[in-house]
Amino acid sequence: MDNVREQIEFDVLFVGGGPASLAGAIHLMKLAKHRGLDLEVALIEKGANIGSHALSGAVLNPIALKELIPDYREAGCPIEKDVRGDEFHFLTGTRHYKVPFVPKYMHNKGFHIISLSKFVSWLGKAAEDLGVNVFPGFAGKEVLYGQDETTVIGVRTGDKGVGKDNAPKANFEAGIDILAKVTVFGEGPRGSLLQAISKKLRIFEGKMPQVFETGIKEVIQLPQTNYFSNSQGNDIHTLGYPLGLNTHGGGFLYEMKDNRVGVGLIVGLSYQDPMLDLYEEFIRFKRHPFISKVITGGQVIEQGARTIVTGGYYSIPKLVVDGGLFVGGSASMLNAPALKGIHTSMKSGMLAAEAIVEAFSKEGFAQEALSCYEQLIEDSWVKKELYGGRNFTQAVSKKGLVKFLHLGAQYLTGGRGISDRLPIEEDYKTLRRLKDVRTDPASVYEKQAYDGTLFVDKLTGVYLSKTQHREDQPCHLIVHDPGLCVNECFETYQCPCTRFCPGNVYELEIDDKTGEKRLKLNPSNCLHCKTCDIKDPYGNITWSCPEAGDGPRYAVV
Ligand code: SF4
Question: Is the distance from CB of 311 to CB of 209 less than 8 angstroms?
Fold first, then answer.
């Protein structure tokens, strides 16, 4: 197939159509014009459209947007609501307590509540208007290296029209080699290409582990008269129920326009209980009396799931290699205590653009020429923000009350706390054996009643994410040793993939007569959240990119 592979050459290629890449591409075009440089810039995105795979809270701190597009409101930036008041609630099983102060990192008044999907779609149009060649429906499948085997020279996009048996079908289209002098990787959390580069060029060597949280989010259509009609607070965060002291995370409710609300629960993947079911926890959260009061009378109109990278400053990889830079979530650019990463991701893309323009002025694209990007990050407000929360996730991941000791110390010492570089385990190592956690796994969750309107089951949730995959293609979820799943993993953890996957992709089938077990996969349900790739306790699952254009088709989350 290689001899028919087409090659296209650009000056700069952005991989991924999220806020980091798009802000980077827009800033690059503006800077290049200002400097009189004529650059050919391309951006590829695996989703069917720009925004199809974008899902976030999302409260946008507009600091980077103001730098990028100062007249963003007049330019039609899709803002759902401005934050008029923050609220912070602690939930117990049946009650809620409004905390009299909001932690300083979460002061969002004046920021914007957005749909990330709509926002990046708007940024995509802005990039196209400036001359960026935007290609949705193209997934980077492989990193291309020069003859020295270390210089990144572009990416190969995935083939299309391959059958389940890996053989080309009648409509086969070979992937394209997109070559570029500089490639910017902004794939988002757990990027497949970033992981491949990491193995080859060891960009995470000496760094703290990248750690993750998974968020499940819905947009709910509310009645015309609803909780927000009389509430000053339209940016609400919660702590506590349904998560206990040993599982960190929290909930959020953001008012959106047209009487809608974004509701979500984020769970740290450092949790220990193998019976924890992320989706069931989300539904329990929604059933809490306080949350129920906000969403009463509503109807779920969209649902999705995604992981976020919360390791923070000490887990930022080496940001530059020969011919390549890393931006956004995949490069750990998220302010964890503020629960915000869109503005920091955008700024990282913009600083990458500044480094690229310098490199083009000197016509050198090796690591030394691009490395001013790392210094630009260090000198920017991104560093300041991330450095302040450098031990935050590591503290909240501690079990029991000791986390509050760490958090208090960090609050008083500008983030340093009791121990700088507070240790944390990688998420896949934290599950405890079932027999050490509970004696009766069957009693974990009461059977939930779903009404199909305000409370929808997992499969309806997948339907509401508009997820689609072409059925006749190789399975993009690689279970390296299926025997390990039904033997050792079942015995030790009862196959936690059947519970941490919010898309019901993994099912354990047990033959009534023989007792034989089989792990059944439903890859077409996959929401591309990457939780399985991160949390599987044996590292037995690898998420790979399916045919480009497949996956969720988010429009408003
Ligand atoms: Fe997420 Fe993996 Fe399930 Fe897909 S299969 S929805 S990536 S956990």
Answer: yes
